[in-house]
Amino acid sequence: xxxxxxxxxxxxxxxxxxxxxxxxxxxxxxxxxxxxxxxxxxxxxxxxxxxxxxxxxxxxxxxxxxxxxxxxxxxxxxxxxxxxxxxxxxxxxxxxxxxxxxxxxxxxxxxxxxxxxxxxxxxxxxxxxxxxxxxxxxxxxxxxxxxxxxxxxxxxxxxxxxxxxxxxxxxxxxxxxxxxxxxxxxxxxxxxxxxxxxxxxxxxxxxxxxxxxxxxxxxxxxxxxxxxxxxxxxxxxxxxxxxxxxxxxxxxxxxxxxxxxxxxxxxxxxxxxxxxxxxxxxxxxxxxxxxxxxxxxxxxxxxxxxxxxxxxxxxxxxxxxxxxxxxxxxxxxxxxxxxxxxxxxxxxxxxxxxxxxxxxxxxxxxxxxxxxxxxxxxxxxxxxxxxxxxxxxxxxxxxxxxxxxxxxxxxxxxxxxxxxxxxxxxxxxxxxxxxxxxxxxxxxxxxxxxxxxxxxxxxxxxxxxxxxxxxxxxxxxxxxx
Length: 481
Hints:
Layout: H1 2-9, H2 13-16, H3 21-38, H4 53-61, H5 64-71, E1 75-81, H6 88-93, E2 101-104, E3 114-116, E4 125-127, H7 128-133, H8 139-149, H9 160-178, H10 181-197, E5 201-209, H11 224-236, E6 243-251, H12 260-273, E7 278-284, H13 293-307, E8 312-315, H14 325-336, E9 339-342, H15 353-359, E10 362-365, H16 367-372, H17 383-390, E11 394-396, H18 401-404, H19 410-419, H20 424-436, H21 442-466
Parallel strand pairs: 1-5, 5-6, 6-7, 8-9, 9-10, 10-11
Antiparallel strand pairs: 2-3, 2-4
Helix pairs in contact: 3-21, 5-19, 10-11, 12-13, 13-14, 20-21
């Protein structure tokens, strides 16, 4: 009886009771693949899912389970930062090959920072084309060294403070690349193409700076309105396959509570100018060292009343290091936000669960990000494992995949499926939730649901064919080293 009650309380309870016969057949095959991954141990007795993401990534992508998840229609991504959607490989081997790309070669914190300019942008900068010409080995080796420079995903667990140093180094290098207008367009086009063809998505909501600074080769900059116009134009190229929306965001360390009213006015102005693009506002940055949401709450409440802004707030992304500020942020987020980014601290405030269910406030869960940035070690102990069982509305997103060493959300789906008590019904619920809790209008959601359901039915049919051989042949388990 207790088991039955637990099943009824799960986040996917409704979906579990409505699977078709074909879905049950496919679920059996998926669960067989999952058991294979959980039964393979290294010499220390650890399974793949208990190890650092960077250590398991290549083994993961070679599994049949991952290949099947690549094909799974995932609905929407609701939490991804626009400037880390593509891999370091693409940034170095495509974007940096545009003409007039310079790199800071001075040893130290700024080493590797890239910028486009007709003339040397600063002391220590050298043209990348000349550095490649002078490379002592083949150019590909030089490029690989730059890709490695952008690696922020360690092969060993490390404290969150160290992880954030690595993480912020990535953005220091790539900011000048992706904010160059020609690369900005090129980047968006490639990212949207990947979301449709590789991640099987119909909708995405990007975190995007409320005050972006995009520049031209001659040194002039686009205004925020001009920048969003460029983004909107590129997004329209994919409109028949993908809807794109923006959640404007400010960076907490540069935006203390006293500055927030002016920032919210700017966000409201952009939302009014781009009503079919901008859907809300967020604040980003390291929660454990930032002001609390409670400090920002008066301005947020006033901004909602004055401008009608909707909030999708990072909250509870914490290492539980003795400072309860980040843990308490989930309380304010539950009162202010339409969705909560990360929400790890919700496990310390389980009384908020019923409120989230009743108000339709979903958690944007980003498991790989949470591990790489030092908030969780063993994926099986991620707070979302509790959310699954407790009925908390849950969605799945990659956060900053390019900065974390991957560029396909299927990796997060592999982690969630293997680490937590999930089956095919759970995966279907995650995809369904991603549209249900999106910022799309109701009519737009119906279009997205229709598109996704068609993809889902095709996926089930084609996967049953592809996996129709005996279960013993469902691909070798990942190799744990």
